[in-house]
Design a protein that fits this description.
168 residues, alpha+beta, Aminopeptidase, 7 strands, GNAT_dom, transferase, acyltransferase activity, transferring groups other than amino-acyl groups, Acyl_CoA_acyltransferase, 5 helices, seven-stranded mixed sheet
Length: 168
């Protein structure tokens, strides 16, 4: 497995991982109408732009992108102002879970944030996501919960904080 910085040519693989991850993780949690609307081509455009503007890491296994992670400045400083950094997204294909890929992506993104001067990091995760224990295992402590709406359905979202990302 290789963890490396992504570039624009990786956008299709990143989009595929994101869409497939939502389809394997969120049935019964997120409305089917939303899951059915996820489109690799539309997501590919978003990830091309992201790869040009933010450090975005991919996990590659046998030449195939199987996971990715991205982080930057906390986008919701009103809710958790003491956290300057945020893990925006971390996904891996279900077939590679339990191989340390998520850990490697998480740690690389946290190290990058620390190197860019961020001290603390927050992450949000749908509360019913089976991977929620991953964030606890990585040292996050529960900060709170909010309700978001996806395609008309109210869904609980949990927030986890990491106090000193230089130690991750």
């Amino acid at each position: 497995m290789i963890i490396r910085l992504a570039d624009v040519k990786d956008a299709k693989g990143i989009a595929r991982v994101q869409v497939e991850s939502w389809h394997t993780t969120y049935p019964g949690i997120v409305p089917k109408s939303y899951l059915d609307s996820l489109d690799v081509k539309k997501r590919e455009k978003i990830w091309k732009q992201a790869a040009q503007n933010q450090p975005l890491y991919v996990a590659e296994l046998e030449g195939d992108i199987v996971g990715f992670a991205i982080g930057g400045e906390n986008r919701d400083k009103d809710t958790y102002p003491e956290y300057d950094g945020e893990l925006y997204a971390i996904y891996s294909l279900k077939r590679v879970h339990k191989r340390g890929i998520g850990r490697e992506l998480f740690e690389q993104t946290a190290r990058n944030l620390s190197a860019r001067g961020f001290k603390k990091m927050v992450v949000s995760v749908l509360s019913e996501n089976p991977a929620v224990d991953f964030y606890k295992h990585m040292g996050g402590h529960f900060l709170g919960e909010e309700t978001i709406t996806i395609d008309g359905k109210a869904i609980a979202e949990s927030f986890y904080g990491y106090e000193d990302i230089s130690k991750i």
